[in-house]
């Protein structure tokens, strides 16, 4: 059984991982759990967010693993999350964010080291076409 100290430490690690999501980026519940050192504990991330309320955490940046907003479409919380994400330049289409475009790890070297983003290669680039 986990001690209260272990539980508090896990919750603090989750809050720290959420707080570290850069503005204009998003992460999944599972990614937050992994970054907090708690792989497989995505539901715990949701619980911690629910308990935290709006305690200064950028909760709007946390999404389901497929990029969908977890709140029911059209609900007050759903609309608020869309509004906050849009305010950060994150595009939400049909309740979903493109994780390739806005995911936290998309260009980690650029984010960490302020390096220019590497040009994306087109599919099949560098391979000769077979005739």
Full CATH superfamily name: Winged helix-like DNA-binding domain superfamily/Winged helix DNA-binding domain
How many separate domains? 1
Largest sheet: 2 strands, parallel
Spatial shape: globular
CATH class: Mainly Alpha
Strand content: 5-15%
SSE string, helices as H and strands as E: HEHHEHEEHH
CATH architecture identity: Orthogonal Bundle
In the CATH hierarchy, the third-tier topology is known as: Arc Repressor Mutant, subunit A
SS content category: mainly alpha
- What's the number of extended β-strand segments? 4
Proportion in helices: 40-55%
Structural commentary:
The protein has a single domain, classed as Arc Repressor Mutant, subunit A (Orthogonal Bundle). It has helices spanning 4-19, 29-35, 42-52, 76-87, 99-102, 108-113, and strands spanning 27-28, 62-63, 92-93, 96-97. The model is unreliable at 125-131 (pLDDT under 50). Helices cover 43% and strands 6% of the residues. Strands 1-2 form a two-stranded parallel sheet. By secondary structure, it is mainly α. Strand 3 (92-93) and strand 4 (96-97) form a beta hairpin.
């Amino acid at each position: 059984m986990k001690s209260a100290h272990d539980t508090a430490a896990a919750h603090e690690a989750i809050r720290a991982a959420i707080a570290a999501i850069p503005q204009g980026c998003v992460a999944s519940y599972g990614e937050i759990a992994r970054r907090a050192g708690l792989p497989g504990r995505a539901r715990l991330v949701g619980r911690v967010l629910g308990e935290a309320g709006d305690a200064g955490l950028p909760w709007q940046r946390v999404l389901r693993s497929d990029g969908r907003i977890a709140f029911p479409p059209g609900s007050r919380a759903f609309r608020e999350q869309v509004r906050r994400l849009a305010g950060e330049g994150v595009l939400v289409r049909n309740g979903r964010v493109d994780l390739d475009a806005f995911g936290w790890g998309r260009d980690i070297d650029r984010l960490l080291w302020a390096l220019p983003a590497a040009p994306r290669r087109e599919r099949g680039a560098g391979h000769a076409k077979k005739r």
